[in-house]
Amino acid sequence: MKKIWKRVPLGPLQTNCYLYAKENGECLIFDPGEEAQKLIGIIRDKGWKPAAILLTHAHFDHIGAVDAVRETFDIPVYLHKKEADWLSNPALNGSQYFQMGPIQAKEADELITEEGMMEIGGFTFEILHTPGHSPGSISFYDRDERIVFSGDALFRGSIGRTDLPGGSHEQLLSSIKTKLMKLPSDTLCLSGHGPETILEDEMNHNPFLQ
């Protein structure tokens, strides 16, 4: 069954939330960072039926709308176990370092503990642990569609920042090169900020990977 994706930039940092839907209307919500009512309105206008919220990581600009969206649709939130405490802690999720006030959410319903294949809400992904931007950063790879939701690990022409708690430049480069760049070169990469890209283009042109 063919899937479609929609990018919805949200909040002051224009963090990309992605809606990933099947033709039958089932959908997943990646990184609902802010503007909950805008996001809820889009989902309802499309007639989509959310099954879960998937977090690539728990930085504040990716979690601001988590609780409102979770409660509206009564769906679970998935997050890597290494950031289990981040949703409720502004020091860990980074919101206390920016002039936006503390951002908090209730704990995740499901913690992802290992890499490998996982079925979530009728969708099947390969979970890749891609730390460096943050300790629990994960990427969700849909093998059938050749799409990877990379969070803030890899951007078009750039990579994620590593100056927030738990960040590591060397670890991030290792994650990109040993995990993301091992995927098929024509894989579409949907990043946490900015436009989509193709992994082959990043292999050949991203200055951080040369």
Task: Describe it.
- The protein has one domain: 4-Layer Sandwich (Metallo-beta-lactamase, Chain A), CATH 3.60.15.
- It has a 6-stranded mixed sheet, with helices on one face. The chain has a 6-stranded mixed sheet with strand order 7-8-9-10-13-14. A two-stranded antiparallel ribbon has the order 11-12.
- With 210 residues, it is an alpha/beta fold.
- Helices cover 19% and strands 31% of the residues.
Outline the secondary-structure elements.
Blueprint: E1 3-10, E2 15-22, E3 26-30, H1 36-46, E4 49-54, H2 66-73, E5 77-80, H3 90-93, E6 110-112, E7 116-120, E8 123-129, E9 138-142, E10 147-151, E11 154-155, E12 158-159, H4 169-178, E13 188-191, E14 197-198, H5 199-205
Parallel strand pairs: 3-4, 4-5, 5-6, 10-13
Antiparallel strand pairs: 1-2, 2-3, 7-8, 8-9, 9-10, 11-12, 13-14
Helix content: 10-25%
Q: What is the succession of H and E elements?
A: EEEHEHEHEEEEEEEHEEH
Strand order of the largest sheet: 1-2-3-4-5-6
Please tell me what the overall shape is. globular
Let me know the largest β-sheet: 6 strands, mixed
| Mean of residue pLDDT values | 96
Unreliable residue stretches: none
Count of discrete domains: 1
The total count of helices amounts to 5
Instruction: Kindly identify the CATH topology.
Output: Metallo-beta-lactamase, Chain A
Give the total of beta strands. Answer: 14
Keywords: Hydrolase, Metal-binding, Zinc
Pfam family, one: Lactamase_B
Protein name: Metallo-beta-lactamase domain-containing protein
InterPro entries: MBL_Glyoxalase_II (IPR051453), Metallo-B-lactamas (IPR001279), RibonucZ/Hydroxyglut_hydro (IPR036866)
